[in-house]
Amino acid sequence: MQIRLTTLLSRKTLPKDAAVVIAKGLTTHRQAISTATREGNGLAHQLLGLEPSGYFENDRLVALLEQTPAKAQHVALAVVLGACESVTSKQTWRYPSPTDTDYFTQLGAWGYSLSDVEQIVTAGEAAQAAEKGDPVNAEPGAGD
Questions:
Q1: In 3-state terms, what secondary structure has residue 140?
Q2: Residue range 57-99, pLDDT digits in tens
Q3: Pick from 21, 25, 85, 114: CA 20 to 30 A from residue 32's CA?
Q4: Cβ pair 64, 75 in contact under 8 A
Q5: Helix locations, the chain, DSSP H
Q6: Which residues contact residue 138 at a Cβ distance below 8 angstroms, ignoring those fewer than 6 apart?
Q7: Nearest to 22 by CA among 62, 79, 66, 96
């Protein structure tokens, strides 16, 4: 998954809904963001091709922002995606959290082919949407 995220973040133009994903990450998924930030955003650094900063070093994400202010949205999205990715595990498909479900659903919406296990995580959201009568998030053809 990291390779796909690195490719996404290396694009000059991010997906149109990147700002919404960032805002949702900072609000709805704040626990994952908090943990990643407390631990130095190591995965966000890696996704942007940076060596993670040491504990007593200046943060390389900040340095990137200072050198290239136009990359601010890329850095913010890397922090959110890195945080969401870092809370996934081999057991995520068994016990998916709302963060896991939103994360994999968003990647699928961006056109990434989800693995069978990742599809199990997103299928839970589609089933819940169908139960609630939400045709937008239900599986295609579910209401046919």
A1: coil
A2: 778 999 999 999 999 999 999 999 999 999 999 999 899 999 9
A3: 114
A4: yes
A5: 2-10, 18-27, 30-38, 42-47, 60-67, 72-86, 98-109, 116-131
A6: 126, 129, 130
A7: 79
Average pLDDT, stretch 34-40?
A: 92
How many CB atoms are located within 10 Å of the residue 81 CB?
A: 28
Ramachandran class of 45: left when φ > 0, alpha when ψ lies in -120 to 50, beta otherwise:
alpha
Do residues 2 and 46 make contact, with C-beta atoms less than 8 angstroms apart?
A: yes
CB hemisphere CA count around 45 (13 angstroms): 17
* Backbone φ, ψ for residue 130 (5° rounding): -65, -40
Instruction: For residue 6, count other CB atoms closer than 10 A to its CB.
Output: 15
Distance CA 42, CA 51 (A): 8
Residue 135 pLDDT > 70: no
